[in-house]
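Hello K.,

You asked for the raw outputs rather than the summary table, so here they are, unedited. I folded two proteins back to back in the same session to keep the settings identical. This is the first:
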Amino acid sequence: MKHRLTNLAFLIWLIAVLILSVFPDNEALAEGPLSFDKHGYFQHVVAYAAGMGIGYYSTIFDRRWKIGMVVLLWGIGLEAAQYWLPYRSFNLFDIFANVAGCTFIFIPLEYFLRKI
C-alpha cells in the first residue's frame, strides 16, 4: 500500500509540473511571498527536489538512479518545450535549478540516509 501511494504521488507530481510548465506564467507569484525570487529559480529547486524525493521512494523502477534520470529529463524536456510556447520562454538557468533540486535530494538520500 505504501509503495502504491508513493507511485501515485510521483505520477501526480509529474502531471502537476507538466501543467505548471505549459500554462502561462502568473506574474502575481513574482509579487507575492516569493518576490525575492523573481525568476522562479527557488520554485524550480523546491519542485524538483520534491519530485526527486517522492520518486526516490517509489517503486516504478528497479534502480533509484533511473528515477533521477526521469526527473532530470522531465525538467529538461519541459523547459525545452517552453521554447515553442508563445507565452513561455526557454531559460537555461531553470534547467540548472531543476538539476540542483534533484541533486540536493538525491545525494543525501543515496549516500547517507540509505545506509542508516
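The second followed immediately with the same parameters:
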Amino acid sequence: TSRYIRRLPNREWESFFYAICDQCQSYQSERAELTKGFTHCNVCGSRIGRNQGIFIVPAFGFIAGQENPGNPGEEKPEKTYTTRVYFSGKSSGEEEKVCLKLAGGIELELTAASRGKLAVINNAGHYGFRVCRACGFTVLGNESVPGQHKTPWGNDCPGKMLNRYSLGHEFETDILKLYFHGYQDTRKGFWHSLLYALLEGVSSAMQIERQDLDGCLYPMPGNPLGSPALILFDDVPGGAGHVRRLVREESFKEVLQASLNRLQRCECGGVEGNASCYGCLRHYRNQFCHDELNRGMVIEFLAKVFPL
C-alpha cells in the first residue's frame, strides 16, 4: 500500500487552491501561492461550502510503506478514496461548432475544442489526507495521526502533519461540449444518465474504446442545475482527436441512435427501465453516481427528441 507521496530533493509539490460548489458542482482553482482561496461560486454565486481546500500534485509518484502487508484475504479491500473529474470551463485551442435541430424545438449545440482543461480530484471522501511535507508520509484524514513517523528510509522524521490536503492534477485534452438549447430537466440523475448513455453511444458508433473516453457535467450560467452542458473528452494524454470527429451532423445522429439502441436492448429495471447496470449505463469510472443512473429517463428523452 502506498504510504508516502514521493518527494525529490529541493523540489516542492505543486499546490493549488480549489473549490467545488455544493449547489451546481462547478470547479475553480488557482495556484496556492497566488490566492487565499474562494468564497463564492463563479457560476451560480452560492457561497462555497466544505468542498474546498488545497490539492497537492503527486507528480513524482508514491512510495509503499515498510509495514508487512500480510496475507491477502478473500474480502475486497475497503475503498478509501473518491475521485472525480471536473471541467474548468477553459480551453485554449481552436473551436469548431455545429448545431443539430432536434424535435420539440430543441437545438443541440456541439462545440469541439483542443486543449480543454480538466481536473481530477481525490479528496478521500471529503476527509482529505494528512501529509508530512518533509518526507511525504500520508494518512487518511479520518485516521489517527501517529505521534511519530519514519521516512521512507526508516529514519525518524521531525515533520508535522497539521493540515489536510486533497490529491489531484489538471490536464489538457480534446473536448466536445454538448448543450441542449430549449430543454431543462431537474430530475435527479437525468443528466448523468444522458452523459453516460452518449459516451456508450460514441464508443459503439465511432468504434472507439470506451476506456479512451470519459465525460463530466459542466454547469452553465443561468440554469446550472436544470440545463448543464455535457463534456465528452479523450481520456488519453494530450487528446487523440476522437471527440473532435463528432462535430458533424451525421456523425452525432449515429451516436444518438447507438445510445438509444443500447439502452433499449437492456432489460434492467423492467419495462419502465428505472434502473441501470453494467450492460447499459454503469462503468467503473462512474461509481459515484451508480444509484442515480436511470436508463428509462434517457430512453424517453432520446425517443422524443430523436424520433425514428
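The chain has a mean pLDDT of 91.

Happy to rerun anything if the numbers look odd on your end.

Regards,
P.
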